[in-house]
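hey can u check if this looks right to u? its 562 residues, i copy pasted from the old doc so theres a chance i mangled smth
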Amino acid sequence: MAKTATKTSALPTTGRRKTRPPRSVSYSYLDTYNQPSSGVSVTKDTALTWSAFYCAVNIISEAVASLPLKVYKRVEKHGREAKTHVADHPVDRLVRLSPNHEQTPTRWKEYATGCMCIMGNAYNEIVRDRNDIPMALMPLHPERIEVKRDEDTREVQYVYSSDARPPVVLSPKDVLHFPLFGDDLVGKSPVTIFRETIGLGIASERFAGAFIGNGSAPSGALVHPEHLEDAGRDQLIAQLEKRHRGPNNAGRVLVLEDGMTWQKIGVDAKDAQFLEQRTFQVLEVARMFRIPAHMLAENSNATFSNIEHQSIEFLKNTLMPYLIRFEEEINRKLLPQTGEFYAKFNVDALLRADIKTRNEAFAIGRQWGWWSANDVREKMDEDPLPPDVGDIYLSPVSMIPAEKAGDIAEKTLQNPKNGEEKPKNGGEKEEKASADKAIRRLFRDATGRLLAKETACLDRILKRNKPSPDTDAEIRAFYKDFEADVRETLGPSWEEHAGISGKTADLSVAASRYVSQQRNAVLEVFRSGERPELERLLVIWRQCRAEIVAQEYMEAYVPVGQ
């Protein structure tokens, strides 16, 4: 090692780490290859002229660029590992706000992903300050990068060349390198690997242009009974091209003179399966980049039912490998290796379903207790509710740990509610308790439907207005019409209870009392001008008001214990 330390490099370095280019094995971004069998020269520029290839690269690049990339910190919350976004972290500012003075985060991610798709590699120089804190991520063109491995030290070197300055050797810690599948140093270019496929696609498009421009394939020949001199033959060809060449002249009548005859030869475009060949080439690109065919406008085998699943596969099979390459390289080169901080893409935007499905998912998560109201509002990009209301997690009362089910059942039998004795098989009290439970459930469900309609209307009024006499009038008008809904919704439960209990009660009085109580509570809170208080009231109604009202109806009919 001492021997190699005495050598000096002929190339300048970044000043951060001394590296040397002698005795190294180099790898370029694009291997040398022979011309494909189609006879078309395939380079990154000519490949992009093929519409299917360009669309595939554009779709992947824009999809990756549209996903938010943030830096998170691992924290402990409620005894479990959780994460929190650290917006003030210097790396978060780079990947989320401004990677450099020339590019936005979207353009930066789009350019890097495009380089991977076309050339198999993407490079960025990490510009650091004197405290080694990353300050900028400057893109490096893959064609100007040569990756070397020193045969003595086995260290990787990135030699960057440009027209404006001599070659510079960059240390690996100062380069973000995103390679596709390849060898141990660089990724293989898809243009190189699929040169035959790309060449055939380009040739097919050029053939299509020539096919149309030249008046389609020759379907026959003109046969003259005499020998034509060169001048006569050239004049005949010129007249034919003038009258019949090009798409605008297709199908025009051919006039024959001097005993000329028409002899059919060749095949038409359908017989040559020309359109089928072009469709197959689009599928080849879809296979090349693992993109669902419908995203390249190839819908011959697609249905509305499987397109949704193909979109999920697009994230899983197409985008995820690119996203992981970004995350792992950023975590390795820009963040401390303690594991406390990490970068991650948010892919929820690509998985977002229609509004009905999303609301159903939110309702399930809310009811079963793994989401709070503020968790749901955050996913819907809405402002949070006050913590004492929005951070409450619900739990279904019927859900208990399995190992405690026997103990709870035993305690219930030993301590019957409402002065009831321990139920006996065939006893009247057991039947009455069962009937009361069923009626209570009917009242609770009916009241729940009323509250859903009521709170939805009040939410709209709350968002639209501030406290005023006009708002008071609007609330009163709503409850005036709402009383009829109360009678109609509670009617079946009311009649069912009357039939079981053998007693009657005035439904109109109960409905009027309910409307009066609800209206007065809303007006009192609304007139106070405290918007959070009204929001809190509506949340409480949604959570437990139905059970309270159901109990009141039961007591209005038959006193508890009677």
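The longest strand covers residues 69-77.
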